[in-house]
Amino acid sequence: MDITHQRIANQERVVKAANGWPMLGLLLVLAAAATAGIPYGAVTKSPAIIIVSAALIAVTATSLTGLFSLQPNEARVLLLFGHYKGTVRESGLHWANPFYSNGGFQISGKMDARAVTAAVRAAGRNKISLRARTLNGDHLKVNDKGGNPIEIAAVVVWRVQDTAQAKFDVDNYETYVTTQSETALRHVASLYSYDRRENNEITLGSNVDEVSKALREELQERLAKAGVRVDEARLTHLAYAPEIAQVMLRRQQAEAVIAARQKIVQGAVGMVDLALKELAEREVVQLDGERRAAMVSNLMVVLCSESEVHPVVNTGTLYH
Q1: For the segment 217-259, what is each residue's pLDDT rounded down to a tens digit?
Q2: Which of 48, 82, 87, 115 can bridge 111 by disulfide, Cβ–Cβ 3.0-4.6 Å?
Q3: What is the distance between the terminal CA atoms of the chain, rounded to a whole angstrom?
Q4: 69 and 158 both lie in a single domain
Q5: Under a CB-based contact definition with an 8 Å cutoff, are residues 184 and 235 in contact?
Q6: Domain tally for the chain?
Q7: How far is CA 46 from CA 33, 42, 79, 120, 220, in A?
Q8: Domain of 174?
Q9: pTM
């Protein structure tokens, strides 16, 4: 019998913790009283005072572990024996149940020493940064829509939006963002050609804004299950792979030459047409079909030639 396990997405619940400053003052007073109570009980030879003072020290020490501080754009996930109790988002010094789990941390193979230190510090209180983060992706070698190998890279600006999803719905949300960003970039790159101008087709090279928008939308769809919001995604590198770069460069040069020729011919035709109309309207000269064709031919040569043209001046009649 097949059993289908349905994953239930978690949802963040914002809660408020007690102000930590009054609790800190109270605990310091209790600690001072308990510390003074032990020698006082020894002097007065009162075991009860010593026992109460020792118990009070233990309670105070345990209660002190409930103090935690949050910086702006930082949150703490509260866990009590495996149950999610809520998320504190307000910055400042707070106090909560000291039995709330401190959580653990995971080390990824791509993390440097600084990232490991930050992960340990954050996981020590189940803290999650809500600040905007930048993922500068590596250069990836993929095939575009036409099957041409290209190199592409993107930068992604993201932040944690739902701490419960980031903490419980994925194993490691930072690694998840990195992996999904690479996967989304590969998929988007395969949907468009590098540079092709047929039928006003969107290309990677000519329509950076449209491609970046498509990348951001796909990333947001992929990362929503991790409680992550994508603020921006934009291409930072785009080039043909080295093995075909020279060939594609020659092709682009040829296309540029053809496009330039088309513009020149279109302009020349317009100028010739305008010249013939002006001559006819002003009755400067009357040309038959053969002479009109010769004039058009000469004007097209003059206007479309790459080198400087040296016309021959006819000093005779128009027909000789």
Answers
A1: 999 999 999 999 999 999 999 988 877 666 667 767 767 777 7
A2: 115
A3: 101
A4: no
A5: no
A6: 3
A7: 16, 6, 41, 45, 67
A8: 132-240
A9: 0.71
